[in-house]
Amino acid sequence: MDSKMSRRTMLQTTGGALAMAVAPVASTIASSAAAGRLMKAAVVTRAGDDFSTSIRVVEDWPEPHVGDGQARVRTEASALNHVDLWLGQSEAMDFPHITGSDGCGTVEAVGEGVDTSWIGRRVIFNAALPSVGPVGPDWRPEHPPEIDLIGSKTAGSMAEKFVVPAANLLDVGDADPIMAAAFSLTFLTAWRMISSRARLRPDQTVLLTGIGGGVALAALKIVLYTGSAVIVTSRHQWKLDRARELGATHTILDEGQDWSETVRTLTGGRGVDLCVDSVGKVLHGRCIRSLAQGGSLTICGSTTGSDPETLLGDIFWKQLNVLGSSMGSMDEFREVTALFRAGRLEPVIDRVFPFADAPEAYARLQAGDQFGKVVIRWG
Question: Domain boundaries in the chain?
Fold first, then answer.
């Protein structure tokens, strides 16, 4: 996969918002350094593909200032997502920068206008920051807002402490901080794709591409929770074996072939009701051909490119739905997190690294050898 294409795809997928991403660290550094408050952090020092050398672990990074409407969280654990890699590779970013769109910790301070009862609570956060501009004559309340991401324009959770809007927090009580940190972004993304956008029913069949990544595994857990049958694909047999252990109904080893006919065979010639995909260009045609009459393809990313040749004849003759989806709202976040707190949904953890080994954690995710979430422990 071309790394420049990956970066370009990521920027296009988020509506161009990350293309202008600037980490406003200068004022934070100045104010915190003046007060003498310092913390540990995993800092991306420059754009590049070699995270083993571009990530610097420090113990003297300035502690973030708490602004109005914000909360400062002492991090127990933070989890990596592919967006951390894309941001670290993007020449559009200002470096040094702290990424991180997943984290769990305890609130230690709040800004003006925030209820002080947040202090002392273990929390996770929704990384989506809706960008709501002036309400013009053509605005409609049902239009999804453009979304920025915590960890892109602002410093993220890959540090001993981080600051987020208090409105984005949820209390997770006595949840395991490793599991909680690994839960938020991927499960919110998958929940919106499956529940809100595609409105999956228990009698339907789902195809998940590229099992092993965070979103695909979150989708597997959600689909199994609904009671639906699920087919998964992967280029690695060992990942398929692991997916079987988790409850996948059928598995397909992707060796570059058009596996849509295999999907149809597994479904008695009918095809699947829903395909959940973030791979993009390389698999787009196979996903479309795998859908049943009236089926849906939900897309949350395009890591292999965002400009596929599509099959318009299939789309209109079979009355298919092609649905885009990005992260989710706080209402959706509350819904899926309630299932986490009730023990109904939990993430798959690949490996947990101490903060001192953060470069190794980034490198593991980049290598694509993980099955589940890569987590950094700060406690």
Answer: 3-174+348-377, 187-324
For residue 2, pLDDT beyond 50: no
> Residue range 122-148: average pLDDT?
80
| CATH of 3-174+348-377 among 3.90.1520.10, 3.30.70.1170, 3.30.1840.10, 3.90.180.10 | 3.90.180.10
pTM of full prediction above 0.70: yes
Q: In sequence order, what E strands does 152-254 have?
A: 161-165, 169-171, 205-208, 229-234, 250-253
Main-chain dihedrals φ then ψ at residue 73, nearest 5 degrees:
-115, 130
How far lies 24's CA from each of 27, 61, 152, 192, in Å? 7, 14, 10, 30
- Token pair 């890959």 in the structure block, residue: 158
d(CA 332, CA 173): 19
Taking residues 115-130, report their average pLDDT: 95
Please state which CATH number belongs to domain 187-324.
3.40.50.720
Distance CA 97, CA 109 (A): 23
- Asked if 205 contacts 267 with a C-beta cutoff of 8 angstroms, the reply is yes
Total count of residues recorded for the chain: 379
| DSSP SS3 for 14 | coil
What is 247-309 written as a DSSP string?
T-SEEEE-SSS-THHHHHHHTTTS-EEEEEE-S-GGGHHHHHHHEEEEEEEEES--TT-S---
What pLDDT, on the 0 to 100 scale, is given for residue 133? 67
Summarised one tens digit per residue, pLDDT across range 153-163 is: 899 999 999 99
CA dihedral 239, 241, 246, 250 (to 10 degrees): 100
Q: How many contiguous H segments (helices) and E segments (strands) does the chain have?
A: 12, 17
Average pLDDT over residues 3-8: 40
Determine the Cα–Cα distance for residues 366 and 368; give it in Å rounded to an integer: 5
What CA–CA distance (Å, rounded) separates 322 from 294? 10
